[in-house]
Structure formats: structure tokens, C-alpha cells
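Researcher: Next entry in the queue.
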Amino acid sequence: MSPVGQQRLEQLYEVSKLLTSFGTAEGVFDATLGVVSRSLALRSAILIEQLEDHWRMVVWPSDGDRGSGASRAAVAHLSTWFAYLVGAASSAALAVTETLGKSTLPAALEVRSPRAPGPYILIPLVVRGSQIFGAIQVEAVGFFDEADLGFISTIANQLAVAVDRDRSTRLEGRRRHEAETLTRKYESLVDNLDHVFVWEADADTLQLTFLSARAESMLGRSRQDILQQADDLRFVHPEDRSLLARTLRRVSEGEGDQRCEHRCLTGEGRVLWLHTGVHLVDSEPGRRRFQGVSIDITAEKEAQAERAFLLEATRALGATLDYGSALKSVARLAVPRLGDFCLFDMLGVDGQLRREGWAHVEPAGQRAFDRAFAAPAGGGAAHTVPDFMAEARAVLRVPVAQGGRQLGELTFAFVSSERRYGAPELALAEELAQRAAFALENGRLYEETRRAVQAREQVLEVVSHDLRNPLSVVMMATSALVSRGNSPEDQADLGTNVARIHRAGERMLALINDLLDFGSIEAGRLALRPRLCDPAQLLAEAAATSAAAAGKHIAIVVAPSTTPLPQVHCDRDRILQVIANLLDNAIKQPSKSGVITLAAEVHEHELWLSVADTGPGLSPADLTRIFERYQRGASVGYKGTGLGLSIASGIMRQHRGRLWAESELGQGATFRLALPLRRSEAPPSSPQEEPHGVV
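Model: Structure for this entry, 695 residues:
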């Protein structure tokens, strides 16, 4: 090998080392020119390279040619031919920016005319399978021989490979940066979606590989915990796992994007409804992925369930006008949605809650309820808090009210469930209670209408009967008066007939007054004229007034009081009306002893007046209903309107007093009326037992 060849080989080795530590194309080419110029006289060198958005030309003139026409001629030569190589319409269309190289070439040893440029070598920078991304042009001081051409061509090829490698590295870095930026933007976007999380999973193993941050708050678990689980269907509700598995299988088998609605179990044990859409991504060979979006539709599902629940409740409550059946329907509907058991208590006329409906989610619990709350014959079971209430983990009570009037109370409880009551459960329970109240009110109105119709029939029967008898007496007596003669016997019958007419008129007037009083009490218009009255005088006057009706077979006795009786503030005539009504009922009953006892006594801040007989007595069922209108005891053997005790009860309520009965079958009955005493009128006394059967 010639010395020149050996020198060129060493220079190529040195250039290769420069290209190995590639920084920029301009910097490497600048250093390469420093090596090449030691053996090859160059007048100019130019590098043109493609940047991201334009072409850049770097010019290295020799020391003597900087800014000369020869240097400009070299630039024009490269611009023209490079535009041709890349298929540009003109050099101007390339929009090339121009700059000087960092260093200059050594001054040319041979001086030429500026207008006589030397020969050029122009080599495009290109690698197999890519487009031209630059070019180098060198201008010799003298002439290039074939060896020079091979030497420059080898350097150009090495430079092209290095530039392409650098461009690929920078492009990959830029793409990686852009991908990372897009990933951050994507994750930021999906992480901030409300009620939505995005996920990716291996299509073959179903192992989750990506999960957006929103999943943590929705599922109640950390992303790390979820991503580390091998079985990612374990978070799905057991009843919905097969549905989701079929959906994923259809996607995997190429049936396109699929959607389904399923439930998941959160870390807190809540049920979460999700609408999940899935599609398959197989852009990478050997790696198929599921990409999915899961949207929280729990609120929508709960709203649908609530509407269906309330619709079913409305249907069940509207299916009957019997309030007992309605109460049982409400209790059955409430479980298990609002609790493991439900109790329905109704407010009785005495102001006490009575258990009327109950339901338990477990058969054993239902049997226990039936044993505890089943009403005995003749009345409902008294309201008590059962022992199993202590086992409840969460309790919710809501009033059942209509128009500001409380009708009862609904109680819900969770026993075995981990669920707790919140605002949604409270709102649903209140809505159910409101619908139950409407149903009860409709049942009450129906019952009142039915009873009103029945009462009308009873009134017509009673009035026709009670008016027919005195009218018959009036007709007979007036007929006798019309047909009487002037004999002494006829004159004697005159007074008898007139007396009969008077008594018949009194009976008719009493019936009319009862009807009027009852109407006034029902309308709340009964007027009272209270004043101070002596209780002993009230009883004495009542006994005297009823003595004629009692006749010779029944004695009305006023029991003496063991303590002084204070005067009481009341409407004297109305209280006498109440006592007279009680006496009238007692007189009509068969009596063992033939004695009716009137008594008065003071109990704390009340004056008690009582009427006791020795008649057939009243059953427990009669004690609860005889003060209702048109109701009479089962043992009563006489006809009447059934309004007397109802009117008496209404008069006592107007006095802010009470009226009740105490009796056992076969042992007679005692009716008591209690009138409140003013504090200045009531003497101190020891506490007394509260009477039962209060109206």
C-alpha cells in the first residue's frame, strides 16, 4: 500500500472514531473536515441536513475564500442540484437556512480566479429504504482523482449512517416523549372522569394491566391491590360473573365491541352497578388486550328499583280497602329492601301504639314474629319492644302521618346484614310511609262511609221504631178525644189521654234532641255554659229525675261521700244529661239487686262521678266499642238509637274530662265520668291507679 493509501486508511479510522462519538451532524462533519484537509486540499465544504421543519445548510469556506464569489458559487451549485435530487420545484422552494461552520478550511495553496470554481463532489446522505435527508459537497483546490472520490464517498456513507442513526435515536426519543406526554394526558383525563374508570387486561389471562385512578374510590380498593390479583373477576358480584365472562368471550372471538350491565362488590361491601363496554386490541403480534370503560350506574339502577318498589307498594296498597291487609302488605314489601324485618304500629284511640303488621326476611324469624305479635281474640296485641330488637345492628323509624295527624309508625331493622341506613334509605322509607298513610286514610274513609251507610239504616230503623210508638199513642189518644162523648166517664178519660200525648211528645223530643246533640258534637259545635256546681246536688237531682222511670222495682241510691266534695266547674244541664243517660241504660237492664248506686269522690285533681248497676255486665270487647256511635253491648236486650253513650262521651270530651266503663260479664257495670278540678278546688290526695277502658 502506498504511503498516501496508508494515510487515507488511518484518516478513515480516525473519522470512524469521530462518528462513533456522534454529537451533531455539523460537529462531526466539522471535525471530519479537519482530518480530511490534512491530505486533501479543499476550497469549500458544505453540509445540508433536514431538521424537524426545514433544511439547514452549513458552509465551511477556506480562509482565503470566506465571503468570496467562489464560496457563493459553491452554495448555488449545491442548492440547484440538491433541489433536483429531492424533487423540489426550485432551490427557493426548499426554504433553506444558511450558516457558517465552526471552523475554516486551510488556505488553498494554489490560487485560482474567483470565477473559476474547482471540481465538486456532491454525495447525498441516504440509507437503504429511506428518503434523502441531506447531502455533502466538497470543492477541491485542484482536481479530484478516482482515489479522492472513493475516499470522500466512504466518509459520506459513514456520515449518512451516523446521521441516520442519530435521527432515528432522536425520533425515537421524541416519539417516546410524545407517547409519555400523551399517556400522562390520557391518564389525567380518565383519572378525572366522574363515576367512570378505564381499564386494560390481557385477553387470554384476564389479568388487569392498567386501571385508572377513579377505580380506587369507586371500588373501595387500591389500584395496587386490584392489579396484583390473579382473578380479576373476584370483584364482580357472584351472580354476574358468568355474564361478564360471556361478554369478554364474545369480544375475544371477534364478535366486535360488547356491552353489559353487571354488579361489583366494593371493599366496604356495597353493591356497585356498572355499565361496561369492551373492545379488543391486537395491534401488537402475540399480545391481545381488552380495553374497557366501566360507568357507575348505581344511582340509575337504584332509582329504577325504587320506582318499581313504590309502584308495587302502590298496587298492593290499592288492592284492598281493608287497613289490616294493607298494613301486612306494607310490612312484607319492605323486606329485604329496607331491612331484615319490618314492624307496622298503628295509633289507637287511646293514644297507644298497637302492632298490626310485621314481616321478617327469614322464615324462622317470621314464625317468631307471628308467635310474639299475633293478636288474641277480641283485640290487637299491645305494643312492646321485643327482645330481638337488641340484636338489630341498624334501626330506622319513620312516622306514618296524614294531614299532620299521626296514624302510626314504621320500624325497619338490619340484623345480619352489614348494611346501614343513610339518606337514600330514609327518603324511600318516608315515601313508603306516605303511601301507606294514603292507603290507611282511604281505608278509613271507606270504613266511615260504610259505617255511615249502616248508621243511616240503623237510624232509619230506630227513628221509625221509636217515633212510630209515640205517634201511635198520639193517634190513639186523639182518636179517643175525637170520639168521646159528654158522659162523666169520657170526661175522666180526657186527662189520661192528654197525659199520654204529653209523654209521647217528650219521647219524640228527646229523640230529636239526641240527634241534634250528636250532630253538634260531630261538627264540634256543642256549646257549654259552665258554672260552679255542687256534686251532691247533681247526683240528688239526677236520682230524683229518673225515679219515675225506675218505678217501684228499682231503687236509685246516692252513696254518701266519706270526704267533703268540692264544687266543680261544669255545664250543669249537660252533666245531668250524661248521668241521666247512664241511669236510663241501667234502669232498662235486668237487675239482680234492684239497686242503682250513684257516688262521687275526689281522685287527685279530678272529681269522679259513678253510676253502678247489678245487671248482666259487659264483655271486654263491648268495653272498647260501646262509646262509639250506634254501638250497644251484646247483652243489651232493648232497642235504642245507640247514640246515648256516644253523646255522653262527646259531652265529657268538651269538658276536658273522661268517661269509661268497668265491668265483668254477670257482675254488673260501673260507668265513671271524671271532671277536672281547678287547683284551688282540688284537695290534696294520695296517688290513685289510672282507670282502664278510658274513652
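Model: The first helix runs from residue 3 to 20.
Researcher: Noted, moving on.
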